[in-house]
């Protein structure tokens, strides 16, 4: 996914946050997250400051919250876990809204929720303001292992191809009277996911052949140069 | 004639699982020729193609490209000389932008900076895709992707261009545009295809591969009008197409 086209997480813009070099943004996110994770559980004032910093960056990037919030659904499993903690943890009990819950569980749950939310929102901000290609180049500049960067690049490139293939398989299933959402048809769904894996694997081999045919020797040429 | 660009002699190959795909293939392609490689599914066409740039190594026999034998120590030069355009452009275009994809081959050959840029733009110009240089490949139409795939190989300035099913999945207009492009290129072409009218239109000479051996090597018109040969090797013309009723063929 390159210039002039947005990935699903990317929000096109020209703000200072968009223009900042990708490797600096990655470092900033990493540093920010370390601080957030290291913040003591009950330092709510500090959490408020961190959230304010994050919201200021988002405001500066002019990415609307309306765009970011729906994408925060990835956090749901953590939210569920955080919500369960007060009920399953041990320790002294306390009353909240007429329910008896574990006090350490409540503190841990709230802290997890706050840290998780800040983390997800910060990551989404990075994704919304950085083209995937720039992100890869940023990682390259940060001396991330070449192989890891290559794998991420191929993941970005082929995510759409594989998703489209999955979509076509689902359409073909539906056309033959199968409802992939119904548990009754989950065995079929599982088998088609297996088929998708095999197909993707074989495509990987064909891509590799095509790369070898053009002189690939284990290293991608510096993609930044040809800009 | 001078030494052939492509010289395949007595090539035999069996896959590791024991399935033998080629039983002694002889094939010569001379500079500037456009040759069609015809044959039914499973005839060994793809296996043959994968030998031409050393992806598969000959079990017996030899492949020589402009005098250079295909062997381990020459692989890099062989892969520059033999440009293969694979059937599915999504297998060939794997980077973020058209520019990066076309630059991939020449950059592997060691080209850099302005020279690399010139090579990329030149190749894209030849297939009429220069305006799409900064677009991501998967946002192009199928026909455009096929043309970019051809450019990725042209950028390596190969001595022979090998196309696997170039007209498959193209709409008639894209198919015709690709034919115009291929005719305009000043390179030697070996084209693997099931599209017999396309072979007749583009390639004066055809080689028929069947069950791992070459069963005919003649002018395309003669092959397509030899009903006995065609029937014996599962080759069929599309309904209503008769090569005899075409007055003149485009050069």
**What amount of the residues of chain A lies in strands?**
under 5%
Average of pLDDT of chain A: 83
* Major sheet summary line of chain A: 2 strands, antiparallel
Runs of chain A in which pLDDT lies below 50 for 5 or more consecutive residues are 1-6
How would you describe what is shown here?
Chain A has helices at residues 16-19, 22-38, 44-61, 65-68, 76-88, 103-129, 132-141, 146-175, 186-213, and strands spanning 93-96, 99-102. Chain A is mainly alpha-helical. Chain A has 2 domains: 16-131, no CATH class; 145-213. The longest helix of chain A is centred in the C-terminal third of the chain and has 30 residues, at 146-175. The model of chain A is unreliable at 1-6 (pLDDT under 50). Chain B is an alpha/beta fold and 251 residues long. Helix content of chain B is 35%, strand content 24%. Chain B has helices spanning 45-52, 75-81, 89-92, 98-108, 113-126, 142-154, 172-184, 196-202, 220-224, 227-232, and strands at 6-14, 20-29, 34-38, 60-65, 68-69, 82-85, 160-164, 188-192, 205-210, 213-219. In chain B, a hairpin with a 5-residue loop joins strand 1 and strand 2 (20-29). The A-B interface holds A 1-5, 132-133, 136, 153-154, 156-158, 160-161, 203, 206-207, 209-217, 220-223, 225-227 and B 50, 53, 55, 76, 79-80, 82-84, 86, 88, 90-92, 94-97, 99-100, 103-105, 107-109, 112-113, 116-117, 120, 134-136, 138-139, 152-153, 156.
């Amino acid at each position: 996914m390159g210039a002039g086209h947005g990935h699903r997480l990317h929000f096109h813009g020209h703000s200072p946050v968009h223009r900042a070099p990708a490797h600096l943004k990655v470092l900033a996110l990493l540093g920010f997250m370390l601080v957030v994770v290291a913040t003591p559980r009950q330092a709510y004032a500090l959490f408020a400051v961190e959230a304010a910093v994050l919201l200021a960056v988002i405001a500066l990037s002019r990415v609307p919250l309306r765009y970011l919030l729906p994408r925060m659904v990835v956090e749901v499993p953590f939210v569920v876990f955080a919500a369960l903690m007060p009920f399953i943890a041990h320790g002294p009990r306390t009353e909240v809204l007429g329910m008896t819950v574990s006090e350490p569980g409540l503190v841990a749950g709230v802290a997890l929720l706050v840290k998780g939310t800040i983390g997800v929102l910060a990551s989404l901000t990075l994704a919304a303001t950085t083209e995937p290609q720039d992100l890869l180049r940023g990682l390259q500049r940060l001396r991330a292992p070449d192989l890891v960067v290559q794998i991420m690049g191929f993941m970005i490139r082929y995510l759409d191809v594989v998703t489209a293939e999955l979509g076509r398989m689902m359409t073909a299933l539906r056309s033959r009277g199968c409802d992939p959402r119904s548990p009754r048809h989950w065995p079929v769904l599982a088998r088609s996911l297996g088929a998708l894996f095999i197909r993707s694997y074989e495509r990987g081999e064909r891509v590799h052949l095509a790369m070898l045919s053009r002189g690939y020797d284990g290293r991608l040429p510096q993609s930044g140069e040809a800009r | 004639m001078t030494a052939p660009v492509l010289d395949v002699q007595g090539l035999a190959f069996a896959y590791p699982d024991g399935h033998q795909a080629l039983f002694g293939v002889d094939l010569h392609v001379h500079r500037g020729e456009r040759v069609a490689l015809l044959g039914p599914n499973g005839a060994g066409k793809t296996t043959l193609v994968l030998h031409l740039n050393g992806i598969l190594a000959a079990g017996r026999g030899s492949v020589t490209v402009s005098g250079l034998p295909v062997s381990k120590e020459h692989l890099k030069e062989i892969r520059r000389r033999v440009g293969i355009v694979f059937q599915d452009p999504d297998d060939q275009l794997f980077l973020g932008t058209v520019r990066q994809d076309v630059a991939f081959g020449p950059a592997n050959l060691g080209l850099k900076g302005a020279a690399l840029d010139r090579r990329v733009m030149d190749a894209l110009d030849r297939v009429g895709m220069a305006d799409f240089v900064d677009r991501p490949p998967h946002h192009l139409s199928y026909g455009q992707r096929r043309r970019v795939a051809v450019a990725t190989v042209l950028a390596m300035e190969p001595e022979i261009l090998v196309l696997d099913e170039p007209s498959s999945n193209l709409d008639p207009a894209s198919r015709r545009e690709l034919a115009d492009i291929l005719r305009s290129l000043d390179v030697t072409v070996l084209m693997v295809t099931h599209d017999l009218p396309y072979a007749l239109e583009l390639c004066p000479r055809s080689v028929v591969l069947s069950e791992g051996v070459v069963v005919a090597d003649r002018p395309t018109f003669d092959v397509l009008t030899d009903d006995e040969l065609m029937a014996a090797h599962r080759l069929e013309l599309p309904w209503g197409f008769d090569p005899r009723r075409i007055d003149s063929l485009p050069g």
